[in-house]
Amino acid sequence: MLDAILISVQVALVATIINLPVALLLSWLVVKKRVRGAFLLDILASLPLAVPPVVVGYMLLLMLGRNGPVGRILEAALGWELVFTWFAAALAAAIISFPLTARAIMVAMQGVDERIERSARSLGAGPLRVIVTITLPLAYRGILAGVLLGFVRAVSEFGATIVVAGNIPGKTQTLPLAIYQNVQLGQDGEAMTLVAISIALAIAALAVHNWLVARANR
Amino acid sequence: MESFLHLRVNKSYGDFSLDCEAEFDGGVTAVFGPSGSGKTTLLDCIAGMASPDSGEIRLQGSPLYSSGERVDLAPEKRRFGYVFQHGALFPHMTVLENVMYGYVLTPEGERRFEPDEVVNLLGISHLMDRGVKNLSGGERQRVALARALASSPRMLLLDEPLASLDAAHRASILTYLRHVSEQLETPMVYVSHSLSEVMALATNTLALSQGKRVAFGPTGEVMAHPDVAQIADYSTLENILEAEIVSTDASTGTSMLRLGETVLVGPPTSAVPGKQVTMSIRAGDIILSLGVPPKTSARNAAPSVIREIREVGGRVLIYLDIGEQFIAEVTPASAHELGLAVGSDVHVVIKSNSILVFGSEADPGAVG
Amino acid sequence: MSVNPPATIDSRKLLRSVLLAAGALVLMFGSVSCGDGSDEPILIFAAASLTDPLTELAERFEDETGIKSDLNFAGSNALARQIVAGAPADLFLSAGASPVDLLVEEGLASESDIRELLGNELVVVTGPDAGSVNSLGSLLDDSVERVAIVDPGLGPAGRYAEQALRSDGAWDALLSKTVLASDVRAVLSYVEAGNADAGIVYRTDAATVPELHVAFAVPSELHAPIRYLGVVPVGADRSDAASRMLEFLTSEAASNEFGRFGFLVLPSNAR
User: Fold this and answer.
1) Which one, A66, C7, C102, C148, has the greatest CB density within 10 A?
2) Residue of B285, B295, B297 whose CA lies nearest to B348
3) How high is the ipTM of this complex?
């Protein structure tokens, strides 16, 4: 049981660490740089919301599996077999939780007055310096809120995870998978304990999230 | 004369298109026009915040933007200080950190002003440790100016910097801007829809309407250009001038103000004698009299000479000299009746309560 | 007044934390990295119903041989499809033959490698007070309002139940009061909650809910034999160790352990 909690936290943490830079870059491209095709990027970022997680997991498995294009390259080049490892679970959780993180970060970046960023540019700051010294400090509460929201979603990820990472106790069995297995085996008591832990985790993270959002809106 | 800034800008979006050519010299140039005339777009193109569709922008001959040479320098490479209407201060930094932001990014060899210097000039030294969130509107604009100046910009670009300020703050910031232009020898492009601000500050003016150049040249001429009359609201024209308090008299509720060689009787003020203040007189509130006027209720009747007469938009603007130039506005009928002509000696009659006096909000000792 | 340049602390702090996070990621990554060392556990894909006995047997196997196992439990059909999609299973333990047949069709298992492990048995469960149910025919009594079975399209337990009811001739008459559930677990909870009066499930599953009463066993001649099959997929990374595990699972000791959990121990282990 402790295993499942630790794996969940590890998987969700790594998913969040993977997502944050990607979501920041994408939000910046869409909201600030307004690159050509920004609206497509925007839609792409939200796609995992529309596709059933099981399908996402299956596509990941086809890509990363031993016959998949990416899987074959990783195996040949580095000897890595990602599927059915906790890292595959983290990848699945990252993709599923990405829209929540990215959307929140986009909103946070939209909230940063462009004139403030332009002022910094006119004072001699290049785009990267503006991001680091102006945009991120001003948007960080919203960014943190997005990260927490994504973390909560990553902790609760089930559908994609079970397909691409399996349900291996002590390795890839996260809280939701452990709950599922306990329910399957009729071990309702243990299932309920894990459910309670999940809910406690979610409440804690969402409370921090709401607090940050409230402060960001002030 | 080699121009300081050469502009030829084409840019369209939607059904708006900006198409404008001009040569700015190293003084204060106003870009005047109603909202939607494209003046902010033009300023953004100069700053590098927006890219023209085609054209050229050259600073002292070297290209900042050129569609022919495929040059489009990033804003940070142009080193122009940009000041927005609301200041756009960095809200997560103190006033000091705001001012230092551009200074530390300026290569040492290109630093012309030290932070102390601009901070003192703008009278904000007492604000340095404050956050920017509870500054007044006028303080914000002074901090924004100081921040821009501390980066030793090659030019200051100001986008309606006074538009959101009340009359007193507006007058005070105008004074500061004058000091900046005189003492720091930094060229300025000043975007505004206010005739009074443009008159008070700019040597030259580019008037824009619907993206097209309507007139360009010395401010006085541009303001009197018949096509500018279509876009300018002369009824709000004010003379914004600097004056020195000579004395105040609490018993009569008046003050004496020195304006060039003339001393005017003004409204009571809390400023002490010797102080520099900013005063404003609406052009329409000035009465002209041929010869010494008989006794009137107005307290001021000062001799003056007519330098120029321009008739625009059904109004006659009389450019007068009483040691400082200012403008009176009369109807064509009375101008004709009086037989006013350039070179005529007239007396200007001004009620003391037509004069508004604004003490600078900071210690004027630091200003000058 | 003196003005000191404030250091750009913000950006430096940010950079440091980014680097720290990246470092942590690299360290964590270390634990993913493969290695072909023989201490790499074998990855066993097993039908969910085998969870408890297999967990114990895998520990015993490790004690005896030093070979570690990772156990991945799910529905047999889902597992087979994952293997087809590229999941690196070293050993597949399936409830029912059709998931294994799928592997054979895809060229991922050869017929000759398939071993029969165990059997199971269908039973009818009722709530504690439904005393009159004692045969498939008795399910037609008016005292039984609803009977829950697994949807035959979704799971083998449903297919076996349908076969048995058809052979008995009760299927058509029973259809109007049949409730279809997504899996055996759902059937058990319908009966446990009183939403169905009786349900048809595997004996091993019935044993996990002591509150339920096993009314009778469905005669095994009424349906195709219920079999658990084991196979080492073609191209498994650790096929040797996996074959040893499969052999161990068909040993007498292992069979006794399975028997303790209610599984039927088969006389021989060839298919």
Assistant:
1) C148
2) B285
3) 0.83
**Percent of chain C surpassing pLDDT 90:** 53
- Contact residues, chain C, for A181 at CB < 8 Å: 48, 51, 73
Substitution target in C9, C71, C84, C191 with the highest count of A β-carbons within 10 Å is C71
For residue B170, the distance in angstroms to the closest alpha carbon of chain C comes to 27
- The three state secondary structure string of chain B is CCCCEEEEEEEEECCEEEEEEEEECCCEEEEECCCCCCHHHHHHHHHCCCCCCEEEEEECCEEEEECCCCEECCHHHHCEEEECCCCCCCCCCEHHHHHHHHHHHCCHHHCCCCHHHHHHHCCCHHHCCCECCCCCHHHHHHHHHHHHHHCCCCEEEEECCCCCCCHHHHHHHHHHHHHHHHHCCCCEEEEECCHHHHHHHCCEEEEEECCEEEEEEEHHHHHCCHHHHCCCCHHHCEEEEEEEEEEEECCCCEEEEEECCEEEEECCCCCCCCCEEEEEEEHHHCEEECCCCCCCCCCEEEEEEEEEEEEECCEEEEEEECCCEEEEEECHHHHHHHCCCCCCEEEEEECHHHEEEEECCCCHHHHC
Name the band, by pLDDT with cuts 50, 70 and 90, for residue C11.
Answer: low
Residues in chain A, total: 218
Looking at residue B344, what is its pLDDT?
A: 87
Tens-place pLDDT, residues B85-112: 988 999 999 999 999 999 999 999 999 9
Which pLDDT tens digit goes with each residue over A138-171?
A: 998 899 999 999 999 999 999 999 999 999 988 8
Which residues from chain C sit within 8 angstroms of residue A87, using beta carbons? 29, 32
- Residue B300: predicted pLDDT: 87
- State which H helix or E strand residue C85 sits in: helix C76-85
